[in-house]
């Protein structure tokens, strides 16, 4: 069998695995830990392992090396920014989680600018002011989580630099070891780039919600919400020194096209 035919078969197999996991995850979506994050369990471990395998099949950076403590912290702190700002239904959350774990490509995220606004307006509130306050609270919560993520990212980047500098001096390494090390460095960088990209997308969804809320129920509370957005935008700038301009494009993390609820499929 030719390499191209083998790759095609593996890709088809990866698609079938992803389809089965979507169905299974619907039954297992209750396995949540603190703050809604996946709880340590055999199922969630299987999803993570399958995500690494699927990413390797798609020829994305994916290393089989064990995670360092800081790499695990980085992934835990990335969770909030890679999941919907406001979930709409179980399937949306499952799809986002399978994308986060890389069972599905990152470009399979739903590109719906109005998703947060729709959820905010659909929830029952006693007063329109409560919607503005909920918006401000969500925005500020994101902003407060960026510095710890940036600090973890800086530690990981420092460790990766040490890893790369050490490679020429370790004579017992096999070619596979060098490749896995390079893949882990690329994997870490692309995760940071992904969070930076998704944080920008969240800001866009929050602003969309604020603008439509202002037109529907104008109130002075909009000023506080606007200040909250400014706070989040300033905090997002903390991620810029961690990566060069264009890192998202080099990682294949293109901006999704706004297509409502239809997934956007593109090569990573």
What does this structure look like?
This is Lipoprotein. Residues 1-30 form the signal peptide. Keywords: Signal. The chain is mainly alpha-helical and 268 residues long. It has helices at residues 3-28, 42-57, 69-82, 90-100, 115-122, 128-166, 175-216, 221-236, 247-250. It has a domain at 67-250. Helix 1 (3-28) runs antiparallel to helix 2 (42-57) and helix 5 (115-122) packs across helix 7 (175-216). The longest helix is centred in the last third of the chain and has 42 residues, at 175-216. It starts with a helix and ends in an 18-residue tail after the last helix. The relative contact order is 0.14.
Describe the structure using short key phrases:
mainly alpha; 0% strand; elongated; disordered C terminus
| Largest sheet, strands/sense/barrel | none
- Specify the structural class: mainly alpha
**Annotation, overall tally of beta strands:** 0
Q: What is the molecular shape?
A: elongated
Head-to-tail CA distance between termini: 25 Å
- Tell me the quaternary state: single chain
Question: Spans of 5+ residues with little confidence (pLDDT < 50)?
Answer: 1-14, 23-31, 256-268
Average predicted local confidence, pLDDT: 77
Query: Share of helix among residues?
Result: 55-70%
Number of helices: 9
CA-atom Rg in angstroms: 20 Å
Element-level helix/strand string = HHHHHHHHH
Give the DSSP E fraction (strand runs of 2 or more residues).
under 5%
Short description:
With 268 residues, the chain is mostly helical. It has a domain at 67-250. Helix content is 66%, strand content 0%.
Outline the fold blueprint.
Blueprint (H helix, E strand, L loop, with lengths): L2 H26 L13 H16 L11 H14 L7 H11 L14 H8 L5 H39 L8 H42 L4 H16 L10 H4 L18
Helix pairs in contact: 1-2, 1-4, 3-6, 3-7, 5-7, 6-7, 6-8, 7-8
Keywords: Signal
Protein name: Lipoprotein
